[in-house]
Amino acid sequence: MGSRRDFFSFKKTPSVINLPYIKGSIDVCTECRGYCVNACEESIIFKKEGEIPYLDFKNKGCIFCKKCAFVCEEKGKAVLNSLMENIIEGKAKIDVSLCLSYHQVICLSCQDVCKTSIKFSGMFYPEILNTCTACGLCVSICPQGAISIVESQKGK
Ligand code: SF4
Ligand code: SF4
Ligand code: SF4
Q1: Disulfide engineering: 82 pairs with which of 69, 108, 145, 155, CB 3.0-4.6 Å?
Q2: pLDDT for residue 151 is more than 60
Q3: Which CATH number among 1.10.8, 3.30.450, 2.40.128, 3.30.70 corresponds to the domain 18-86?
């Protein structure tokens, strides 16, 4: 099971989850028409006029297809760079008060979509490992809405 330190090593859930592959200044995006929004086949990128784009995992997660970065490069915006790592700033967090597996109900739904970064102790008590890329694939799959992506503190 996770230590107390694990549970408290997060900042408050941010309202904005940034796109992967950011290399340049995302402030440039405020003037952009948001080419990445249509490029994303998973439809997880949203952008309001005059604001920066953000990810929303309520329906799907990021499959790191790089299409957002490719179109950003093509349009000469230089905010996203397809050579950057497949990672999103943040980390998944399980609300243990909602998670079925912390209440003696067998549920392995999150592990079904993530074999690498969610570790169960036997059939129960899932924990998020440091290998989490914050892809968000586990968020919509959880029947309890127990998983969110939060900003991890520096060095965590
Ligand atoms: S990498 Fe692909 S799935 Fe992920 S946000 Fe970009 S376009 Fe969408
Ligand atoms: S899918 Fe949700 S309820 Fe099921 S084990 Fe994972 S976090 Fe818990
Ligand atoms: S726990 Fe797995 S599925 Fe969930 S955000 Fe992290 S890497 Fe993605």
Answers
A1: 69
A2: yes
A3: 3.30.70
Calpha distance 92→128 (Å, rounded): 7
Ligand positioned closest to the Cα atom of 128: 3
Q: Per-domain residue ranges for the chain?
A: 4-12+89-150, 18-86
Helix/strand/coil (H, E, C) string of the chain? CCCHHHHCCECCCCCCECCCCECCCHHHHHHCCCHHHHHCCCCCEECCCCCCCEECCCCCCCCCCCHHHHHHHHCCCCCECCCCCCCCCCEEEECCCCCHHHHCCCCCHHHHHCCCCEEEECCEEEEECCCCCCCCHHHHHCCCCCEEEECECCCC
Take atom 4 of ligand 2 and give the residue whose Cα is closest: 107
- Does the beta carbon of 99 sit less than 6 angstroms from any atom of ligand 2? yes
List, for residues 88-139, the tens digit of each pLDDT value.
999 999 999 999 999 999 999 999 999 999 999 999 999 999 999 999 999 9
